[in-house]
Amino acid sequence: MASWLGRLSMGDTWYNMYSRLLRTKPVGSMGQASDDLTELAEGSAVGLAKVLTTVDLVSLGVGSCVGTGMYVVSGLVAKAMAGPGVILSFIIAAVASILSGVCYAEFGVRVPKTTGSAYTYSYVTVGEFVAFFIGWNLILEYLIGTAAGASALSNMFDSLANHSISNYMITHLGTLRGLGKGEDTYPDLLALFIALLVTVIIALGVRNSVGFNNILNVVNMVVWVFMIIAGLFFITVSNWEGGKFLPYGWSGVMQGAATCFYAFIGFDIIATTGEEAKNPNTSIPYAITASLVACLTAYVSVSIILTLMVPYNLIDGSAPLMEMFAVHGFIWGKYVVAVGSIAGLTVSLLGSLFPMPRVIYAMARDGLLFRCLSHVWALTHTPGIACVVSGSLAAILALLVSLRDLIEMMSIGTLLAYTLVSVCVLLLRYQPDEQTDTHQFRTEDDEGPVPTKEDLIEGSDHDGTSTYHAGGTEGDADDTDFHTGRASLLKRLLGGHYYTIRVRLGMPDSSVRPTPATGRIVTRCTLLFFITSFFLWSTVIYGVEQGSGVGAVFSGLMATLMAGSLVKLMVLILQQPESTRRLPYMAPCVPFVPAAAILVNSYLMLKLSPLTWARFTIWCIIGLLIYGCYGVWHSTLELNAREQQAHASSYQRYDDHLDDTFSPDDNFYPQEQEEKPYQGWSAPEERGHQYQQQNKMEEEDGDPQQSHWEEDEERHGYQSGARDPYPGNSKRAKGRTNFGFDDEDD
């Protein structure tokens, strides 16, 4: 008996922790929270002005990316990693960014009227632990992005002063060892001052004006055109001849691509403007795609000119675009590029620092970080403490860490965050919709009249916009707008072979709806795919590429087996029915695009240096300690749950003397047992045999307060009274669980 009670206690503890990690934030709570930073006076809160067009969002995305990426990363990667092959590195990094970008765009459209970027999206749709981990890595991205921007500006001013600033600091302050890859670095006091200055500007409430941003982007574009045209007069084709195009081989190109990914970081700032955009459902995804294409064009053209003007081994690592004109004696061109550098790096620096306090504020407001960081200054209406803390940390990093190490650290954190976004999109596409029943499905976004009885018999649509289908053949269902994304694009690519492939792979008919069982299958397959991809690329990189002899052959065989496992997992996912919910924007070719994003991002992460991985591991451990020791226990959802439990206990004590033989559930809520929405990640059917027995006994006792608990808990974001998703089962389990996916968009 004692051992049985011990197992029951351990099961309770495990399930309670499991539920805490995967609880989601109600969509309805986002409306008031998003206006906290815009409160002008007590009792008078206003929303953010919806004034941003798609062009404005593209300008924000390009301005956030192009600064440091064009003026620093191109020369750094060409000199130390890929040579002229930096062109290919940028293209590969762009492909990875576009794959992640379309997933990011769909993720944002699911919860468009919020700020906080991927952190907020994942908290609403996936769960608390994933949201914290994504938010923690976004903080690393913005933190290091700010430090890298300040360091790049410092290097630019040092280059304008003919390196007199760095020489003075080395002479009077000395050098530091061990902070980079063993090379000597000097304490960059100028970068420290720049980071603190920008922190003060942001903390005082000076917002990143769209007009100011557009002006700087115009200056940046004019300088870019000047560099391309002027550089044509100084190019030397021999810089690419005789094996000089790939001096470090394809391994260097891939390593450079991992670092070049930094140059495309910043498009996620577009996703934080959901409240300011006039039409976020369409503007956000298209602006993300357009900004990535514009950045790729700028990077490739500049890299071509740079490597044709200067041999890769003679490129200046700190200010390459300025020095490429100085090498040819064109000093006037150097100062023109300097003007563009100031404009581009300033926008990039503001773009990194501006969203960082907002993410910290959102996490602290939810209780996952220390709540003091959510304090808003009454004078400036900004999260002042979050600004000061984050800006100070960025300034210290800019002071002590070299620009190259900052860029690599930023790439790894963002690659992992974007990989998790792709994982989440893949999971959400195959989960049951809360409002789906077995007879028809209709989303709030659908237009047109409700299907009539004749339509149900004939299986036809009124105007082609309805998402309803009643039976029919596989081909008939697929020819309508019911399937968006994968079916429509793949049918155009495969033509008449599409239906043959569907039959051979065992893909379900489009009228089949996902169930909790199929959702769990996709969840397990996706997580295995994510983990296996890291093992696969580790084997390829460290066993095949760097190995030799028998070890390399054995590693190749292991990699082949793991690749086969990935293919099998993809087939299992394809065999599950996809969600019928329609979104204004949906990533194409799911599950192939998210899977490709996971594979490419994981490969690029593993191409970064081991020292970068060591630093990143330390950062993750710090985050996990904060979440485990503070966040999980002080979360707003946790505090609300405790309050509900206290209220429920007080109600139970108050009603102890009453006759509890009558259950209001039997008469007042007759439809509770019929409408059984999907419970999501922490569904009670996962709890095990002991919980089913316990709930069975509790059901026999009859609890007159059950419906009241459910009503009270739904108000706080938890739904109690877990329901069996299958209509034939009338058992009910008590306890706090969350709906895994609250698809209440509006």
From TrEMBL:
* Designated name of the protein: Solute carrier family 7 member 14b
The region called Disordered is annotated at 437-480, 662-746
Q: Which UniProt keywords apply?
A: Membrane, Transmembrane, Transmembrane helix
A GO cellular-component term linked to this record: plasma membrane
Transmembrane feature ranges: 57-78, 84-107, 189-206, 218-240, 252-272, 284-312, 332-355, 376-403, 409-428, 521-544, 550-573, 585-606, 612-633
What InterPro entries does the entry give?
Answer: AA/rel_permease1, CAT_C
Q: Which coarse location class applies to the principal site listed for this UniProt protein?
A: membrane
Q: Where is the composition biased (Basic and acidic residues)?
A: 452-464
Q: Which GO terms describe its molecular function?
A: amino acid transmembrane transporter activity
Q: Which Pfam families match?
A: AA_permease_2, AA_permease_C
Which residue range or ranges hold the Cationic amino acid transporter C-terminal domain?
585-635
Identify its membrane topology class.
Multi-pass membrane protein
Where would you find this protein in the cell?
Answer: Membrane
